[in-house]
Structures are given as C-alpha cells and as structure tokens.
Amino acid sequence: MTSSGGLGGAIPDPSVRRLSAYLRHLENLAASGVKRVSSRQLAEYVKGGDAQVRRDLALFGQFGRRGVGYDVEDLIQVIRTILGTRAQWNVVVVGAGQLCQALLRYRGFKERGFALVGAFDTDPRKIGTQCGPVTIRHIDAMEDIIRKHEVRLAILTVPAQAAQQTAEKLAAAGIEGIMNFAGAGLSLPPHVHVSQVDLTAHLEQLSFLVSSTRAGQ
Amino acid sequence: MTSSGGLGGAIPDPSVRRLSAYLRHLENLAASGVKRVSSRQLAEYVKGGDAQVRRDLALFGQFGRRGVGYDVEDLIQVIRTILGTRAQWNVVVVGAGQLCQALLRYRGFKERGFALVGAFDTDPRKIGTQCGPVTIRHIDAMEDIIRKHEVRLAILTVPAQAAQQTAEKLAAAGIEGIMNFAGAGLSLPPHVHVSQVDLTAHLEQLSFLVSSTRAGQ
DNA sequence: GTATGTGAAGTTATTCACAGCG
DNA sequence: CGCTGTGAATAACTTCACATAC
C-alpha cells in the first residue's frame, strides 16, 4: 500500500519517511551555516545511496542544480511544503503521564510546525495541573477544544487498555491523525491515520542486532 | 541491507520490526487470558496479510499447529528468544532531560527485558538528582558503570549538537547498540548499531497523509 | 472444515549507469 | 568535470495459492 492520496503518482511510504530524515539533516546544516548540499552528503546521513535521495526528491519535482547540488534553505522549504508543515498544525495530547509532560516541554515540535494546544486526562488529581505551556483538562472538554482550535492531529499516551476507546473519542471529535504511543492497535475509520510509536521495539531491534552479530562481521 | 549477522539465511529488517509488533499484541492477548491465536488475527493488528505473519515466523522455525493456530504463551517465548530479550539487558540513558525522566519512570521497559541501570549528564545542577529508580551521575562515571553492569545498550537523549561526541564515548565504553533520540546522524564503527527515533517524523508523516487525503478516498 | 508452511508469482523499492546540464 | 534526473536492471519484499496436517 502506498499512502498518498494525492493526484499525481502514488508516493512510497519509505520515501516519505526519508523526507523527514533529510529535513532533520538539512535543519542541522542550516544551523551550521551550510548553504549547499549534494545528494551524496544527504545520503550519508540517512545511510542510503545518493541515487535514492535524488529519486525521493524527484517524486515531487526538480529541486537541484546539475553540477552544483541543492540549496539547503530552498530544500528545507520544499520538503516542508511536501510534508504540509509550512503552516502550523494544532495538536492535542491525551493521557497526562510522564511522557505527556516530556512532550509538552519539548521545543522541537513547535519549531517544526506542531503546536501542542491542549492536554487531557480522566484522573481528577491531574486535572488543573500546569504542564509546560498548557493546563491538563478533563477529557470531556476535549471535543470543544479540538473544534475551537481546529485540531486535526492528536498524540495518544494513555495505557493500552484505554487506547481504543480514547481513539474513538478523538475520531468522533474530528481528529484525522493519531500518533499512538499505546502498545495496542487501533481500529478506526480509514480516513483517520495512525502512526504507531513503539519505543520498546527500538530496543528490541537493537537486542536482535547485537545478539545476532558475531565477531568478524 | 538485511540486518542479520546470524548463520542462517539473512533476516529482512521489516520482518524483525514486525516481530516486535506481534509481541505487543500477544502480550495484550495473554493479559486478556487468550490462549490461541491465528495468523489472521495477528495480521489484523499489524495491518498486514496473514501470509506475511506466517512467513515472518517461518524465517525462524515452525511454531504453529495446522488447523489450530499458535499458542499465545509459546509464541511470546519464541519471539523473545528470537529478539534476544529472554535474558535481561542492562541499559543506560545519557542526557537527563524531561524525556530521560519519562523513560526512567516507564515500567514497560523492565517488563520486556530492559533494565535502566544508570543515567548520566554533564549539567552539575542535575547530578545527584533522583529520577525514578536511579540517580543522575556525571558522565565521567559512565564508563565504570557500563563495565560494571555489563551494559551493552544505551539511550541517547542529549541535544543534537552533543550527540556525536557522546555516542563516541558510549562506543569507547563498549556499548554495542544506541537508541538515538537526537535529531543528528551518528557515525560510529560498524559493530555499534544505531536505532534512530524521530518523534517529529511521526507527526510529519501524519501531516503528509492528512494533507494529501482528499474527500472520497 | 480450519489454519499452517511454503514454492511460485507478483509487486514494490533500490541501485545502476549514463545522458544532460551547469 | 561534477552532480542531477531518470530509464533500465536488479534486488527485496509481499501476496497468492495450495499441499499438508490437525
């Protein structure tokens, strides 16, 4: 399955994921004052081939100059345009645990086009708590806030057993994309996209790789 | 590139990633008292086909019973064995920010075979702070702890510009796998595996999907 | 009847290799 | 001469379809 619903050719998921990686590297380059970059340099960062970088970008147009490379600032704007993050997205967080607090205090989201405008929980002890720039509210107030701020994306950090029912509330409130930290699958209408985040899985991948690496490889 | 360094056939990266997903679902099933599961049920959770589930598992052996399915508890142990998480891994965290605190307080890692045994920073104001079950120590004490506890995996949560030099210290201390939250690529000897975590990228994927979805798709 | 395990087929993604441009 | 953009070739992954076993 390719994820694009756009009008042009279908865009492979792996390409879209790599665009985010290119963007991270371009942000770092821009911060260091670098003006130009070649596909080879971008490839090194993502550990792919240079041809892959060029092909990923070519899916959306022609952005480089032959013999020269890509303009760092231009390419940042191009990728932001592709990803849809030139305008800011309002985002809510549901489930006010430790992770929620960490996310609310993280500055990177805002810089990259995602403003966390509300946080919700059902636990009365948490409600009213200030957390970074936002106050934790009861989940009953969620739909109002979502409608008022035109929120289309949500981050779900509730326990696994509460994930499905909470996600349904989000969908009912008009949310179209959910970043799901809960270790539970979500069944939702097809227009609601889900991006599953599994932190344990990253350690498991490393465990697998380290376990299966033998001396001399 | 396939990641396996094992002796048998090479194992595709996507298959290993899905094993973690199957494991999450199996853990949930076990918690609900479910005893048996079919490839079709597992596939639904991961949004793949049933044949894919069977093929992923068949890479490592035959674990099901024809006409019946898979035993949930058995399959959990099988996947843990494959991933190398039946024995516990000791893990350190470097960079004692909000995220570090959230990770240190998260119980899921311990339950799944990853014990966070130390946390390190360079900021003198943070050193000595208690954080969940561990005390923040100066990074100079890191190598000792790593050697003493036979730590092979690390989580890196330092700012992007400090990531490379900190990762080099980890590699020098004998770390073989790094879960990297910093938005910076790491260049390390090939025996040190890196799993890049980019939380912003998840929101960017959703932004792309939501932006490119038109009514009626 | 039900569900696995697996060759064969099909699809998707990556890499090669070079024409074309600066 | 360097680096992009891209058709063609290759490699990787997924799905089909069915023999096999319960």
Task: Give me some keywords for this one.
homodimer, 217 residues, alpha/beta, Arc Repressor Mutant, subunit A, Rossmann fold, 2 domains, 7-stranded mixed β-sheet, two-stranded antiparallel ribbon, 9 helices, 17% strand, globular, disordered N terminus, DNA-binding
Structure description:
The structure is a homodimer of 217-residue chains. In chain A, the strands form two sheets. The first copy, chain A, has a seven-stranded mixed beta sheet with strand order 5-6-4-3-7-8-9. In chain A, strands 1-2 form a two-stranded antiparallel ribbon. Chain A folds into two domains: 77 residues, Arc Repressor Mutant, subunit A (Orthogonal Bundle), CATH 1.10.10.10; 112 residues, Rossmann fold (3-Layer(aba) Sandwich), CATH 3.40.50. The two termini of chain A are 34 Å apart. The first copy, chain A, contains nine helices and nine strands. At the A-B interface, helix 1, helix 2, helix 5, strand 8 and strand 9 of A face helix 1, helix 2, helix 5, strand 8 and strand 9 of B.
Secondary-structure blueprint:
Two copies of one chain form a homodimer.
Chain A (H helix, E strand, L loop, with lengths): L12 H19 L4 E2 L1 H8 L3 H9 L11 E2 H12 L5 E6 L3 H8 L2 H4 L2 E8 L8 E2 L2 E5 L3 H7 L4 E4 L3 H13 L4 E4 L12 E4 L2 H14 L5
Parallel strand pairs in A: 3-4, 3-7, 4-6, 7-8, 8-9
Antiparallel strand pairs in A: 1-2, 5-6
Helix pairs in contact in A: 1-2, 1-4, 2-3
Chain A binds a DNA duplex (22 and 22 nucleotides) through helix 3.
